[in-house]
Amino acid sequence: MEKTKVYFTDFRTGLGVSLPDKLKKLIRLAGIGSIDMDGKLVAIKMHFGEMGNIAYLRPNYAKAVADVVKEQGGKPFLTDCNTLYPGYRKNAIDHLYCAEVNGFGWMTTGCPVIIGEYCRTAFIGKSVMDADVFISLTHFKGHEATGFGGTLKNIGMGCGSRAGKMQQHNSGKPHVITDRCRGCRRCARECGSDAISYDTGKAWIDPDICKGCGRCIGACSFDAIENTNANANEILCCKIAEYSQAVCDGRPCFHISLITDVSPNCDCHGENDAPILPNIGMLASFDPVALDQACVDLCQKAEPIRNSQLGDNLARPDWHCHHDHFTDSNPNVRWKETLEHGEKIGLGSRVYELVTMK
Ligand code: SF4
Ligand code: SF4
Predict the structure, then answer these.
(1) Position 15 pLDDT exceeds 50
(2) Given a cut of 80, is residue 297 above it in pLDDT?
(3) Ligand 2 closest atom vs CA 169
(4) Which ligand has an atom closest to residue 144 CA?
(5) Nearest 5°: CA angle at 152, between 159 and 337?
(6) What mean pLDDT is reported for the chain?
């Protein structure tokens, strides 16, 4: 059986060749031209970055993809769905404002930004489901709950409405291991839902308020927060794959992922810590599972950056090395399940051929 192809190019450029132009060349080589976009609505799903975060993909890349869509007669728009937790992307108005401040406007991208609203049955953003063609444009980086934030995360969690995000996260709410808690309050600063209090000097999570997003688990440096359901992260990974399939099912899809500014956590954070890995390159494929697997494999081969979350962990004399950059950066994560489950349900293949474009 022929292997799925994933197209790759690094960030080297010749004189006068811009990176957006290189991205256009890559996605054409990967076959985006075979999708009939004539007169069709084409959703380009991306993450506009939380206010204060500057690791998200630059609008220039979105414009490159939108330009190619327009060349093919399509009507592109950029889209994302609202977040589960408070911040600048929790409702459509704030989200649009945040996208504008972060540089995503008509002038910079040449197309409109539409924020997904609630779709009652599928729990997927309506703007995404209304599109004839779906393109994911992903910033590949680390993630505090799912190990890496890649294409499946961008699609599955990213296209979920608030109800859909809740459904994916609801497999477990964390609790505090009181003996380990030092009362540093870092977890409460990360919790956008005000679910953590300190009445006894130690953290306590109110299960009635907690949304189960898991951000506090990654925030605690003392392993004092764990999920009540030991399989919660595993289940979350599987649900992300299933939501991705619901988004991609029944219409032409194409996927692009850029491994750049590999911050340890999601772009939903209002900050981005130093990259844990060097900038690696741009990838494109029709297969979202193969694309994520290729990004993972390239990242695992890369040299960790010193003075980063990953570099600091690996330098600790007492560190138990996992020989896995995502787990060594965020030890409580599970990530393989997303890819394994994605393959199991027929979303794509983890076996691929990497085609390198110079
Ligand atoms: S971050 Fe960890 S140690 Fe600090 S208050 Fe929260 S649970 Fe306790
Ligand atoms: S999982 Fe943690 S960060 Fe998320 S809502 Fe619950 S207490 Fe807050």
Answers:
(1) yes
(2) yes
(3) 1
(4) 2
(5) 130
(6) 90
Report the DSSP pairing between strands 281-285 and 253-259: antiparallel
Q: Where are the beta strands (DSSP E) in 199-252?
A: 204-205, 225-227
Q: List, chain by chain if needed, residues with CB within 6 Å of any ligand 2 atom.
A: 173-174, 190-191, 193, 195-196, 205, 210-216
Delimit the CATH 3.30.70.20 region(s) of the chain. 173-230
* CA of 213 relative to ligand 2 center, distance in Å: 5
Q: Which ligand is nearest to the CA of 220?
A: 1
Q: Which atom of ligand 2 is closest in space to residue 174's alpha carbon?
A: 1
Atom of ligand 1 nearest to the CA of 225: 7
Q: Which residue has the tokens 């764990």?
A: 226
Does domain 4-171+231-356 fall under CATH 3.40.50? My reply is: yes
Q: What is the pLDDT of residues 189-225, one digit of tens each?
A: 888 889 999 999 999 999 899 888 777 877 787 878 8
- Residue 173 Cα to ligand 1 midpoint, Å, equals 16
Confidence of residue 180 (pLDDT cuts 50, 70, 90): very high
The set of protein residues with a Cβ atom below 6 angstroms from ligand 1 is: 176, 181-187, 203, 219-220, 222, 224-225
pLDDT tens digit sequence for 306-347:
999 999 999 999 999 999 999 999 987 889 999 999 999 999
Q: Which atom of ligand 1 is nearest to the CA of 176?
A: 7
Q: What is the location of CATH 3.40.50 in the chain? A: 4-171+231-356
CA of 169 to the centre of ligand 2 (A): 10
Report which secondary-structure segment, H or E, holds 197. strand 196-197
Instruction: Return the pLDDT at 121.
Output: 44
Question: In terms of pLDDT, which residue wins out, 99 or 90?
Answer: 99
pLDDT of residue 73: 98
Burial 131-148 (b: 16+ CB within 10 A, else e): bbbbbbbbbbbbbbbbbb
Cα 67–71–76 angle (5° rounding)?
55
Select 173-230's CATH number: 3.40.30.10, 3.30.300.30, 3.30.70.20, 3.40.1260.10.
3.30.70.20
